[in-house]
Amino acid sequence: MIRDKGGFNVVLDRKTIFESRGMEIGLRGKKFSYEGNHASADSIQELLEEGLAPVPIYSLIRGMAVSSHEEAEIFGGGDGLAERITAFDPEGIMGKRGSTYVLDIQNGGLFVRDHERMRIAVLQSQLTKEALQISQKEVNLVLDAINRKDYKALNEIVKGQVFVFSGNYQEFLEASSERAFLGGGMYPRCKLLSTYIVVRTIDEARNVPSGSLPIDSLRKNQDLIIASGGRDNNENMLAAAKKFSWKQFGSNHDGYKNKNCGYGLKFSPRGQWGLTSSSPYIGNFVGVSPAARDAFYLRYLTGPLEKKIMTELSFGIPLYEGKNRKTNFY
Questions:
Q1: What secondary structure does DSSP assign to 115-175, as a single string?
Q2: Residue 300, Cβ neighbours under 10 Å: how many?
Q3: Can you give 262-325 as a three-state secondary structure string?
Q4: What is the domain partition of the chain in residue ranges?
Q5: Rounded to two decimals, what is the model's pTM?
Q6: What does the pLDDT read at residue 319?
Q7: Displacement of CA 153 from its chain's centroid (Å)
Q8: 184, 161 Cβ separation under 8 angstroms
Q9: Predicted confidence band at 245 (pLDDT cuts at 50, 70, 90)?
């Protein structure tokens, strides 16, 4: 059952051009909202059929950081192209036999783009507390590629875009401190290209507090930092939460009790929800026009050509206006 089909009203990013005139351009996404059996599968299927690209969680977090309170309320929350998988390693591919790891995948996944797989999982009861079950063979394939640091293989497995990182949390902190980390390692201004996987032991992941927590306590929260694409992006998001006068913000996990299972991830700029697991029965995937995305991030345009691109690709409805400032959105 379809619940809502809105327009391009999800703020993903904005930047200033023509500084002397105080002019901004922005990038927006479209949310596809469904409820009912296999709603998540229906949501991602329609998004892909419209020719849009599903956005990663770090893009939704970036959007909150540059949104007004009103824009954040209009968005409400949505699913991103991301997964969190509890992976059992009986053979010791990654080290000690019988270890369990938590894999955070951003801008890709084993199943999140595969609407048929998600739909079948619901219809054939291949879920464990709403998490999709993953075979040991598939888990071993991922762990082996991670262990070998085979980025090409990992990108194919998770159907990513530009694979830039696989490693543990400390290595991730170092890698994500680079300005171009989210731009595929090439484009410092881009925030939508990179695919990465962060690997944690199950004890490390379980030590991260879960629930609606005081904002200042979340500055070192591993779950939010991983989903944000680094410390600085998490700080910008938390600054926005404070700007919205929230005292707490959500960062949630299920305790990772079930082996070889995976959830999609969703993000809400409303404080009590924040980052949490998605449900197969509620679909709210957000997509972006690839042409608009590339025009916004990858073309360094000025003058008449910039105006031409804006005229052709902007939807022309400003979502934010301030003193001497107007935002045109791609």
A1: HHHHHHHHHTT-EETTEEE--HHHHHHHHHHHHHT-HHHHHHHHT-SEEEEEEEHHHHHHH
A2: 8
A3: EEEEEEECCCCCEEEECECCEEEEEEECHHHHHHHHCCCCCHHHHHHHHHHHCCCCCCCEECCE
A4: 2-11+35-282
A5: 0.88
A6: 29
A7: 21
A8: yes
A9: confident
